[in-house]
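pinging the channel bc i need a second pair of eyes. not urgent but kinda urgent?? the chain im working w is below, pasted from the shared doc
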Amino acid sequence: MEAFAEQMRLLRRECAWKREQTHTSLVPFVREEAEEVVEAIESGDPAALCDELGDLLLQVVIHAVIAEEAGHFTLDDVARGVIAKMERRNPHVFGDAVAVDAAEVLTLWNAAKAAEKAEKAAAAEKAAHAREPGEV
């Protein structure tokens, strides 16, 4: 993955089109690639799925490199974030919770997701109250 990220960094430096892209300008491509992944899944063609997953991964990497250039986050941050999310949302694998079937797994997943949402809302509320009076 690091070699892929480095290749994208080079492309952003050396390719005028890629250099000009932003998160917003790439939205149509993210949508298109996601739809093509669905089409490949529905076709049942493993080679097509492999190819389309690569194209979708390209979207992830270019967005991460754009964010890295802006000082927002890196591809490693994206990976660490999803690893942590999987650990939180799968307590039956990474914790003490028990799930004997897929329905119980989904219940645990949804509970963890709801807790994450509540935590984000509480943090946003706290941040809003921490601002000086008159700040937006």
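so The chain has two domains: 1-73, 90-136. and The chain has seven helices and no strands. — does that match what u expected or am i reading it wrong
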